[in-house]
Amino acid sequence: MIFDVSALNLSNLIYVLRGIFWTLFLTFVSIGLGLILGSALAFGEVYLPPPFSYIFRIIGEVLRGVPLILLFLILYFAFNLGMTLSAILGLGLRSASYQGQIFRSSLEAISAGQLHAGLSLGMTKFQVFKEILVPQALRIMIPGWTNEFITVLKDTSIAFVLGVMDIMTRADFIARSIGRYFEIYIFIALVYFVLVKTSMSILNNLYERVRIPGLGEKR
Amino acid sequence: MSSFEIVLFKYKDFWLMGLKYTMLITVLSILIGIVLGLLFAIMRIYGNKFFKAVAVSYIDLIRGTPMIVQLFILYYGLGSTGLVKFTPLQAAIIGMGLNSGAYQAEYFRTAFLAIPTGQTEAALSLGFTRTGLIFNILLPQVVRIVLPSWTNELIALTQYSSLAMVLTVMELTAVSKYVGSKTFLYIQAFSLAGIIYLFVSVVLTRLMVYFENRLSIPGVSAQKLRI
Amino acid sequence: MKEVLRVENLKKSYHKNEVLKGVSFSINEGETKVIIGPSGGGKSTLLYCINYLQKPDSGEIYLDSELITPKNIYEARKKIGFVFQYFNLFMHLTALDNVMIGLIKVKKLPKDEALKIAKESLLLVGIKEDLWNHYPAQLSGGQQQRVAIARAIAMSPRIILFDEPTSALDVELIGEVLQAMKTLAENGMTMLIVTHELEFAKSVAHEIMFLESGVIVEKGTPQEIIEHPKSERLKKFLSKIAKGEE
């Protein structure tokens, strides 16, 4: 039989689905880490004087230039970090390099006129940053950030090479033990699909709610 | 010999093999991706309801699931059903090609939509058929608009080709892990792999910029059309 | 009459290009002065230097007889309104919030008081209640510029600087903005306006200054400047304007 539905019995499915905890845990922690490190990276690149800004830029380029698996392997084998920590740091550092870019380009999308208008009212530079630039940049960021979230969510599956017990690893484990690969992998493909679509609709919803007409669109 | 030299020279042939497989997978899968991407984009824009639905579901399903799962379905999954038995390398190339096709369909679609409708109107008024319009008028412009996104796609595929490692293909990352485990010089082996990846990215980017300039026509570019 | 703003020997260069070559003038309370001149002549730079959005190279600027320095610039900017060519309304705030934000964040007024002032300011420039909750992108250019004027007057500045306030607008929207500015002039607001609208200048300006290549070539009453220009350069400029080339 090509597709044996009996391979998808309740106990197998529950075994696989319990991995959702790790899949989501890795996603949220790495995205959070990436957000913090990414904004630091963006600031370093934009506001620090030349020798330092180059260093930040090179760090970003390297993180974007090497495969995620290689990052995992370096953290795990070369730095001897545990598998969970390697997974979080690998996903988080890589995401930082992308989120930094998103944050930077959002700030750059805001015209100098907004800064001038704020200053001309007597605001300090910090007030302009806090009241004008950040609220606008955060909104402009959301679509790009949604993509990044989805990418990280899907890439948590690569932590499989480290053995983190996410849905991917659990699925592989069950598939091997019962000898039914097709059914189990199709099943987790569906699970990922549902997770991706759900997060997308939540994030799109958030965007619609905070979206402001005309913001981030070119004149 | 320094430890770095051991890693590099003693395992020279392995590194070359790794580089070969990495490049082979990347280049072949992007070519498959271009063909599929164009096909699905045209289906989605110009197709009837049925073709549209097929294209949309394909793009959605591929982009909504991780590549590693797709590779596993193709290699272990299909293999175990006895329908088709791919070699690991074949599975990697086909899987990544199918994956890239979905992403490139979106690049192509954006590019088609970025071309002003006046181009279509002018071609039709000259008596072009729909097919003639697509291939003679729109496609030459579309290709120039999507070129920059191919650069990104190439670099993404170079990195994702490392997933072939879990299908036991000896591409670069697999080689670095192998060399590391043989010599216990993990840091050196992984760093070397990282340097090669960065080098490949730089070369590919340069190459694509060269093509972009060679093919450029004033006024027809992603930047000019703001996509 | 009390002097509000005095500019003395203001100079500004970009790289090696000297945009302002020593500009001096002053404005008294309630006066409206207009600056005309060809583009690239330093008009915008002059305005941007007055409130230090661009730092002048040398020269002095006095606001109510007090020298403006980088130290007191934040205090000074509260008293100098600025209306930009491209409006520069805060894109993430509604019309009402655009007018209120300076009152709340800079002047630290309580919210209800800020709201009251904002409403009055918007009504003064003819922006009615139905537009108050619109975002900038939902307003026409003329409406945006009037909100921007309301944002400036809400701060009750000593003077407002206008940087070509109508040059980014479609012809049919220019009138409403000029009308709002006229209202301000009639209410005794002190204003320094860079504009190409000569008819408007004639009707509101106490004095017109002709700025070209970084110097004030000629100044005088609207009659003197527009009807009886003395210098060749001003004559040439006026004939260009008449032909619609500037």
UniProtKB/TrEMBL annotation, chain A:
Domain annotation ABC transmembrane type-1: ranges: 20-203
UniProt GO BP: amino acid transport
One Pfam family it belongs to: BPD_transp_1
Record's protein name: Amino acid ABC transporter permease
Membrane topology category: Multi-pass membrane protein
Protein family (similarity comment): Belongs to the binding-protein-dependent transport system permease family. HisMQ subfamily.
Keywords, ordered alphabetically: Amino-acid transport, Cell membrane, Membrane, Transmembrane, Transmembrane helix, Transport
Transmembrane annotation, as ranges: 20-48, 68-93, 184-203
Places the protein is found: Cell inner membrane; Cell membrane
GO MF annotation, one: transmembrane transporter activity
GO CC terms: ATP-binding cassette (ABC) transporter complex
UniProt organism field: Caldisericum exile
InterPro entries xref list: AA_ABC_transptr_permease_3TM (IPR010065), ArtM/GltK/GlnP/TcyL/YhdX-like (IPR043429), MetI-like (IPR000515), MetI-like_sf (IPR035906)
UniProtKB/TrEMBL annotation, chain B:
This protein's name: Amino acid ABC transporter permease
Subcellular location: Cell inner membrane; Cell membrane
Major location (coarse): membrane
GO BP, sorted A to Z: amino acid transport
Cited PROSITE patterns: ABC_TM1
Membrane topology of this protein: Multi-pass membrane protein
A UniProt-annotated Pfam family: BPD_transp_1
Keywords associated with the record: Amino-acid transport, Cell membrane, Membrane, Transmembrane, Transmembrane helix, Transport
Transmembrane parts of this sequence: 20-43, 185-209
Gene Ontology cellular-component terms listed: ATP-binding cassette (ABC) transporter complex
GO MF annotation terms: transmembrane transporter activity
Family: Belongs to the binding-protein-dependent transport system permease family. HisMQ subfamily.
Residues annotated as domain ABC transmembrane type-1: 19-208
Gene3D superfamilies according to UniProt: MetI-like (1.10.3720.10)
From TrEMBL, chain C:
Keyword Transport: yes
PROSITE patterns in the cross-refs: ABC_TRANSPORTER_1 (PS00211), ABC_TRANSPORTER_2 (PS50893)
Statement: the UniProt record of this protein carries the keyword Transmembrane helix: no
Pfam family, one: ABC_tran
Membrane topology: Peripheral membrane protein
Protein name: Glutamine ABC transporter ATP-binding protein
Domain (ABC transporter) ranges: 5-238
InterPro entries the UniProt entry points to: AAA+_ATPase, ABC_ATPase_HisP-typ, ABC_transporter-like_ATP-bd, ABC_transporter-like_CS, MetN_ABC_transporter-like, P-loop_NTPase
UniProt subcellular location: Cell membrane
Chief place of localization: membrane
Residue stretches in coiled coil: none
Organism: Caldisericum exile
Keywords: Amino-acid transport, ATP-binding, Cell membrane, Membrane, Nucleotide-binding, Transport
GO cellular component, one term: plasma membrane
Entry GO MF terms: ABC-type amino acid transporter activity; ATP binding; ATP hydrolysis activity
Gene3D superfamilies: P-loop containing nucleotide triphosphate hydrolases
